[in-house]
Design brief:
Layout (H helix, E strand, L loop, with lengths): L2 H14 L29 E9 L2 E11 L3 E8 L9 E8 L5 E10 L2 E10 L4 E9 L8 E9 L14 H4 L6 E8 L2 E9 L4 E5 L2 E14 L9 E8 L6 E8 L2 E11 L8
Antiparallel strand pairs: 1-2, 1-15, 2-3, 3-4, 4-5, 5-6, 6-7, 7-8, 9-10, 10-12, 11-12, 12-13, 13-14, 14-15
Length: about 270
């Protein structure tokens, strides 16, 4: 695999861990959770910045904005001057109070335009229509829109690219294993979250003291860009906010690390 493609894949998949590890299909489990045990995850104006690393290379950042109406935006950008990657993508989701997806779209910059996917939900028929879109710039409407595929769902509730970063935050202290239907890049699959029972600590470069966290391990069968899928580990703050602190996951080229480097959330500090 060429080095440019490898690093591009790592940065994209690192972003999707928060968006992404961040899916659709499978029969809905009988105990599909309807109400998250924690109700303090959503905070108007929450702003989290993560750095994506692959081996010794610092690849770029993921900026995640949260709004009080259960919408979120994620911006994935490679660092300027990298000779092997130039990536800029934007991902949007609207969720219900349980963090299941209600609307989703994403775009990625290609030369002088933005290309991406938009999901049109038909909940009555339990179907998603996957549309490819092209835009001259971010402010203009798509000049091209084409339905590429449709996905039949077994359940009305599922996760998308960004909402997968919020779902474990809401159920962080559930002390159980949950398998949730998921859609990633228009691909079908499901994601399993295994919530640990005991808090531990994790270190990050942005703060000199260890952070008290809950570990979430899991795997996704959803096949993302360039065939990415598999196991992951995430560390979330051990409090009602459940802020993602760090994540590690395996990609085709090895291990990718996603780490919190900047945060703004009213009244919140890292738990000790």
């Amino acid at each position: 695999m060429p080095a440019r493609d490898s690093v591009h894949h790592a940065l994209v998949f690192g972003g999707l861990f928060l968006l992404s590890v961040i899916t659709l299909s499978g029969a809905p489990p009988e105990d599909l959770p309807l109400h998250p045990p924690e109700n303090s995850v959503i905070s108007e104006g929450e702003y989290l910045v993560y750095e994506v690393s692959w081996t010794v290379f610092k690849l770029g950042t993921i900026r995640l904005w949260t709004h009080g109406d259960y919408t979120a935006e994620a911006y994935v950008d490679s660092y300027e001057g990298l000779p092997i990657v130039d990536l800029h993508s934007i991902h949007y989701t609207k969720m219900d109070s349980c963090f299941y997806s209600l609307a989703s779209h994403s775009v990625e910059k290609h030369d002088d335009e933005w290309q991406g996917q938009e999901y049109r939900y038909d909940t009555a028929r339990r179907c998603i229509y996957v549309e490819e879109i092209c835009k001259k710039d971010l402010r203009s409407p798509p000049y091209k829109r084409e339905t590429r595929d449709s996905v039949q769902l077994a359940t009305k509730s599922f996760l998308d690219g960004v909402s997968i970063a919020f779902f474990p935050r809401g159920f962080l202290h559930a002390k159980r294993t949950l398998t949730i239907p998921t859609v990633l890049y228009g691909k079908l699959g499901e994601t399993t979250f295994r919530f640990s029972e005991k808090p531990t600590t994790e270190s990050i470069d942005a703060d000199p003291q260890p952070v008290r966290v809950i570990t979430v391990t899991g795997s996704t069968s959803a096949e993302g860009i360039y065939g990415m899928s598999g196991d992951f580990t995430g560390w979330f703050s051990d409090d009602e906010a459940g802020v993602p602190i760090k994540g590690k996951l395996q990609v085709l080229i090895g291990s990718v690390t996603v780490e919190l480097i900047q945060w703004t959330r009213k009244g919140w500090t890292l738990p000790r």
